[in-house]
Each structure stands twice: as C-alpha cells, then as structure tokens.
Amino acid sequence: MGLSPTLLPVWVHPRKSKFGFSHRDEWSGVWHVHVTSPPHDQQANRELLEECRKRFRADVEIVRGVSSTRKVLRIGVEKGLLEQKLESNRIPLNKKRV
C-alpha cells in the first residue's frame, strides 16, 4: 500500500518578512502560512509550493483556491508525519504588548 496524501487547508499571508507556518487555528483547523512574495502573477503560490516541497520533501499541489488566500494543499506525506513536520517548521508568533 502506498502513501496516502494529506489535504491541508491553509490561509496564505503574502508580503511577510519570512516564510513559515505561524499557527493553526483551533476552531477551523486552518494553518496560517506567511510568504515573502506578493500575490501578483502567482508569485506567492510559487513560493508556497517551492517552500513546502523543500520542507516536507514531498509532492505538493494546490487543489483548491489558486486565486484566493485560502487554499487547500495536497501533500504527499501521511497525516501523522505531516503534523510533526508542521510543528517543527513553525515560526514564533510575535505577541503585541498592550
């Protein structure tokens, strides 16, 4: 039996200072992903796919939301392993002081 790919819902935030998975929304389960590229001419999508392929060492494709900030990725990694890799690739959240 082969690997079963995982569908990963993400919310892409373009024009950030560095690439990374910031956090997972507890209610919706959507991962927030920061990309440095602007959304113009699919630059943010290209960066998202390239970085995900490099970090997860697997095939990655956008299956829904190509022209939206909310997307669904199909990643060729089983769910348990993907969750471990996501946690290890998180960027720390900068908490604003009030």
Tell me the β content.
25-35%
Rounded to an integer, what's the Rg over CA atoms? Answer: 13 Å
Distance between the termini: 53 Å
What percent of residues adopt helix (DSSP H or I)? 10-25%
Flag low-confidence runs: none
SS content category: alpha+beta
Task: Please tell me the overall pLDDT.
Answer: 89
The order of strands across the largest sheet is 2-3-1-5-4
By DSSP (H or I, 4+ residues per run), the number of helices equals 2
Strand element count: 5
Rough outline: globular
SSE sequence, one letter per element: EEEHEEH
The main pleated sheet reads as: 5 strands, mixed
How are the elements arranged and paired?
Blueprint (H helix, E strand, L loop, with lengths): L5 E8 L6 E5 L6 E4 L8 H14 L3 E5 L5 E6 L3 H10 L10
Parallel strand pairs: 1-3
Antiparallel strand pairs: 1-5, 2-3, 4-5
If you had to describe this structure to a student in words, what would you say it looks like?
By secondary structure, this protein is an alpha+beta fold. The protein has helices spanning 43-56, 79-88, and strands spanning 6-13, 20-24, 31-34, 60-64, 70-75. The chain is globular and about 35 Å long.
Short description:
By secondary structure, this protein is an alpha+beta fold.
What characteristics describe this protein?
alpha+beta; 24% helix; five-stranded mixed β-sheet; single chain
